[in-house]
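SEQUENCE, STRUCTURE TOKENS:
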Amino acid sequence: MSDLRSGFEAYAAFFERIAPGNLHELDALVTPDVRFTDPFNEITGAPAYRQVYAHMFETLDEPRFVIRTKALDGATGFYLWDFSFRRKGKPEQHLIVGTSEVHLAPDGRVSAHHDHWDAGQVYEKIPVLGALIRLVKRKLAVG
């Protein structure tokens, strides 16, 4: 169990200090065939997974994860996080709240990482699309 716990904690610590200069550290934290999914991506393999975060740094200013809660049950763990960022060259700060579900290999490396968050948090910021999404949400809301 100590390999699982230490791998889980090391992975969380990596995300709280993620930077363009330390993306190579992912290779030691994940299995070579790691699977990653989020509302926009379905990736297999450590190099492709690392590229997701390289792209994040290319397109966003000051991206930052803050893990608010962690839970580990056997080889499955969950992180509740806040992700803050600004779009390149824009002053407005954005916040996405989400959860990561991670599955750990017996040696404590992450074999699968599934992010769960509402992509509408991003879509609502797009001028025309955002107005349409807000209208649909109002129509579907109770009360």
